[in-house]
Design brief:
Chain B: This is ABC transporter substrate-binding protein. Chain B: Keywords: Signal. The complex is a heterodimer of chains A (283) and B (404). Chain A is mainly alpha-helical and 283 residues long. Chain A has 13 helices and 2 strands, in the order ααββααααααααααα. In chain A, 76% of the residues lie in helices and 1% in strands. In chain A, strands 1-2 form a two-stranded antiparallel sheet. In chain A, helix 4 crosses helix 10 and helix 12 runs antiparallel to helix 13. The two termini of chain A are 38 Å apart. Chain B has 2 domains: 177 residues, Periplasmic binding protein-like II (D-Maltodextrin-Binding Protein, domain 2, 3-Layer(aba) Sandwich), CATH 3.40.190.10; 152 residues, D-Maltodextrin-Binding Protein, domain 2, CATH 3.40.190.10. In chain B, helix 3 runs parallel beside helix 4, helix 5 crosses helix 6 and helix 6 runs parallel beside helix 13. Chain B is globular and about 60 Å long. Chain B starts with a helix and ends with a helix. The chains are: A mainly alpha (283), B alpha/beta (404). Chains A and B meet through helix 2, strand 2, helix 4 and helix 12 of A and helix 1, helix 3, helix 4, strand 10 and helix 13 of B.
Chain lengths: 283, 404
Amino acid sequence: MSGVLHRHPRLRLGLLLGPPMLWLGVAYLGALAALFITALWTADGFTGNIQREWTLDNFKDVFSLEVYRTITIRTLLTAVAVTVIDAALAFPVALYMAKVASPRAQRLLVIAILTPLWASYLVKAYAWRGMFSADGPIAWLADPFGLSTPGYGLVATVVTLAYLWLPYMILPMYAGLERLPNSLLEASADLGAGARVTLRRVVLPVLFPAVVAGSIFTFSLTLGDYIAVKIVGGTNQMLGNVIYDNVLTGNNLPFAAAVSTIPVVIMLVYLAAVRRTGALDNL
Amino acid sequence: MRKKRTLAGTAAFGLALALSLAACGTEDAGDDSSPDSASEGPGGFVPPDIAMADSLGDNEGTLSVLAWPGYAEDGSTDKAVDWVTPFEKQTGCDVSVKYFNTSDEAVTLMKSGQYDVVSASGDATLRLIAAGDVAPVNTDLIPNYADEYDFLKDRPWNSVGGQMYGVPHGYGANLLMYNTDVVKPAPTSWRAVFEDASTYSGKVTAYDSPIYIADAALYLMKTQPDLGIKDPYALDADQLAAAVDLLKAQKEHVGEYWSDYLKEISAFESGDSVVGTTWQVIVNYTKANVEAILPEEGATGWSDTWMISSKTEVPNCAYAWLNHIISPEANAAVAEWFGEAPANPKACDLTSEGFCDGYHAGDESYADQIHYWTTPIEQCLDGRTDVSCTTYQDWTQAWTEIKG
């Protein structure tokens, strides 16, 4: 057996790469292709059974009806807001962890940041529902200042999602900063650069690929989220809700498939843009 | 260059695979309508030919129930509220229950074939029958069926061409719930959630389903007779547009929509919602000062039917469940717990005093005033033939636009 494999390097390579390639092809690309094909069918309005006739109507509706443009823009803006907030929050934390804290404190901080990932997504989302409710802690804190809770809506959604995805931004940034040698910071100081110039011209360029890596997580996870917005989003709907509603309540699988090509396209564009910056090479 | 070719190859392979899958799918489609089934349903559809049980055997031992919340209580919510355990003891069928929140969810879940029986409202029943997801029911095999109110039998939402597709369960109205500490004076009209919604702006709630459009249509039917709405489920394009405008105006003041009944309970308990549409069972669960009324305009409502999946592997347990759930004991318990009129008059002897009168059980003229959920279809349900009405798919589209 090993002799056969030794004599046929191509067979060896095929056996080694075959299963993972098959998995990629069947489970991943196959599913995406099936999704796209489903989007070209229609569902019977009465029974919800799928009718296998080729039509572009679903895509026509998605692109021509204003409501889907509004929802797409709302989802995009939410994803951008969550990413920016996470990046702004994660930077000082990551900088402190990588450059200031003692090794012992470093380990404790990593554990502290990873711990929330052990709790269920739903528990955390419902915790924020409690925070934002009319008799919740935010209302209680804001009351002495004559303010009230923003209530369930886009603000609550952005805050909740920024909280949920924060570890995914901190960890790549921390890893990126750890790779930055202290000698570079010292050299910068020796050459007369102040903290601000060092930050801008030494730290940020090194950090950029890490921020991009983190943003892929926060951006794509927000783009596909529909549960948090159901729990704290009030009357708002995101692309994920439209897809969910069409699958589960609208009984219109083909239309749901057509809508779900929107986030796929957005992510492809985003990844292409990221690739152009060269950030992916540094991952 | 090499890398690119590999990628393209993988993609082409994936596409080819999906195409071949699609081809397989196309072949077995189209056996839905068999030519020999004769009777036509009210939507102008011919139900698929599905065999009906003609005798019963031994119980199989398990039963998977798909039900509205509160329809299959096993004592876990309240020890005194339990009609599943007696059924399990009597029949030896182990029951597992899945609750659903909207009729659309029920229709989708029934397509999976994982559930043996379902409590379907009138806006789900015909879709289930037309899709071949439920089987005709041989009512001769269900002894308790004979006791049920005659005016619930052979209705357009539970039978096709004189063939019953289930057993009537009970009926009731969607109510207006409000927080008695906040909402003063007490509302008497649906106006509280439409034109007067601004009073409690941000704390109004509404049912998150396209069928809620009928609530707006019912309100317009009573307040704007010029629109000529005769049946809230038979709306032509102009009437639908009017209902959509009303709901868009309402949306400005809606804090959140509910379809998960637990979400509505928590919103009323925390004070995030203070007025909105509800079911009696939600009022029972809510630990806050709330009250529910039947507003002066009347209400939309439901008339539910227990149906059997066409794919069930446990028909005997399924028939046993249908017989049990309309037995006087179980029917009375469900009716009192959920807050609806029972379908079996014998249940009224077992409910608390005055219960059946309160829900007007058996009062045919009252039952006719509730506008039961039904699926909007192209042929206007109010008998108009000069226009075509909007379908449920139009309503679904409109509902997405209302929520924006």
